[in-house]
Design a protein that fits this description.
- The chain has about 230 residues and is α/β, with parallel strands linked by helices.
- Helix content is about 30%, strand content about 25%.
- It is built from seven helices and seven strands, in the order E-H-H-E-E-E-H-H-H-H-E-H-E-E.
- It has helices at about 35-50, 55-60, 120-125, 135-145, 150, 155-175, 190-200; strands at about 10-15, 70-80, 90-100, 105-110, 175-185, 210-220, 220-230.
- A seven-stranded mixed sheet has the order 1-2-3-4-5-7-6, sandwiched between helices.
- Helix 4 packs across helix 6 (about 155-175).
């Protein structure tokens, strides 16, 4: 079924006209299952014909985003990180929003019950002698304003590179506002505690689901963090 409303080829590029068009862009095709994050995120955004209502509810809490509409969306957007590592950060959905005068980049991470990767100390320890990981971590900490290893060692690695990728993409688009949102489809708000701890560490504490906090200025970008609580599709 094709969504109603605007021509989706002008909004979700690939082109993406129906949710199933996202499948070829997935890192692992087996992730495409009803009740899993890739499936639920695609159905939520593509079938909405714009920003889904639960996401709009959270974004509108920040005055900067209140009147912004979806301009462009890129599923599974790869962003090269600033280190020798070959692995890019692959954002589930990167969107450009705006109101005609001001614009912002939003990195959206879809979740059901998946964790945000390993904690930093375990991720770093598994690197091996010739690993790029120390250099990557150093750059991510610099981007996010987190210099104290003791502060970050228990935080989740995925939140580091996904948030940094959002900042880098905002700079690529030459916009000064950005948000990294978790679009969660978990009834129990799985992994929210890890997200809350990360948000507190970078100075924009998100204390409960369906809340956005910020901004904090990082590399000249006014960054917000937010958690969207949603339900799986029927």
């Amino acid at each position: 079924m094709k969504p109603e409303g605007n021509d989706m080829t002008t909004k979700f590029f690939g082109p993406i006209e129906i949710p199933e068009d996202v499948i070829p862009h997935l890192a692992k095709k087996e992730h495409w299952k009803k009740g899993h994050s890739a499936y639920e995120l695609a159905y939520s955004w593509v079938m909405a014909g714009g920003i889904p209502d639960p996401v709009s509810y959270v974004l509108r809490q920040a005055d900067e985003f209140r009147d912004m509409k979806l301009i462009q969306g890129l599923f599974e957007k790869k962003t090269k990180l600033r280190d020798p590592g070959r692995t890019a950060s692959q954002t589930d959905l990167l969107v450009l929003i705006g109101n005609g005068e001001d614009f912002a980049v939003v990195g959206v991470e879809g979740k059901v019950d998946e964790p945000f990767g390993e904690i930093i100390e375990r991720w770093l320890a598994a690197g091996g002698e010739k690993s790029y990981k120390p250099e990557r971590l150093s750059q991510l900490k610099k981007t996010l304003g987190l210099e104290d290893y003791n502060l970050v060692s228990k935080l989740r690695y995925q939140l580091f590179h996904r948030t940094a990728a959002t900042i880098y993409e905002a700079r690529n688009y030459n916009v000064r506002r950005a948000a990294m949102l978790v679009h969660s489809f978990s009834d129990t708000h799985s992994s929210f505690g890890d997200f809350r701890d990360f948000s507190c560490a970078i100075g924009v504490p998100v204390t409960r689901p369906n809340e956005i906090a910020g901004p904090v200025i990082l590399e000249g970008v006014a960054l917000h963090l937010g958690w969207v609580a949603d339900k799986v599709s029927n």
